[in-house]
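Lab manual, section 2.4: Encoding a predicted structure.

Procedure: take the sequence of the chain (313 residues), apply the prediction step described in section 2.3, and record the output as structure tokens. A sample record is shown.
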Amino acid sequence: MQTTNTRHAALIEPLVEREGRTATGLPAVSLVCVRTPEERQPLIYEPSLVVIAQGRKIGYLGDREIHYDPGHYLVQTLPLPFECETHASAEEPLLGAFVHLDPAVLGEMVTAMAGQAETKAPARDPQPMASVAMTTGMQEAVTRLLRALHDPAELEAMGQARVRDVIFEALKGEQGPALRALVLNHGHYSRIAKVLSDLHRNFTGDCSVPVLARQANMSPSTFHQNFKAVTRTSPIQYMKRLRLIKAQQLLTQDGFNVNRAAMSVGYRSVPQFSRDFKRCFGVSPLQYRQQWRPQLESAFREAAGDRAGGGSV
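Recorded output:
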């Protein structure tokens, strides 16, 4: 196990360009490096597989505590706001890889596997976010994917196959039923999954429970019950957290000012937005933006330099 983890970390570290996320030659794959510990804070992952080669993270979803580290990979099937703490240091930074779960690719693979494996509906609703123990097959698939990122010829010829290789191993694992449920439309879980996907495309529209319940073809009470069972929170609290996290990203990654960020995520009152933001993140949006200004300006300078030099971020 340690040999494989060390190999994965050694393959990731030369490719990370800065603290945080780094894009790769494969649109579905990004790498992450964190050199300082991060206290528990709200965030959101798009549907993805998260492999940690060094360091560790702990996610908190409602009353659940989810550990993912070099011995476990995270399967995130739905875009859920949750809280996360990161254990890392300058001497031993957290290093990992995110593999985005493209619905079309996932659907194609589930359909192809249906003829070879039983795909009946699971006995209970799957977990939308869970840590899965690393298998030899997953370790080897991740190694092949990371090696491809170092070889332009292999990346061009085999990159997509390497991504599918990793997804295939996840489909064979403990969270395979949760991944298949996204495609096979089994029960209430898949209806809630569709509502969540729609919300992420239009989180500034009418998100009242009656409207969402109609989208899911459920009564409001049934929808509320099933929504909370999947997300560990109410629809109203989910939307508030989603909008605040989206606003946080606009403040820190896109350089929006507080007023523009508030309006962009659907708030009509900036003072209300500031109060909600402070309750969520512990500081006002203005203070949060000021804390991130040095990193933001540095990233903009690097991007401008790359464009001037013909490079890529």
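Check your result against the sample. Residues 296-313 have pLDDT under 50 and may be disordered.
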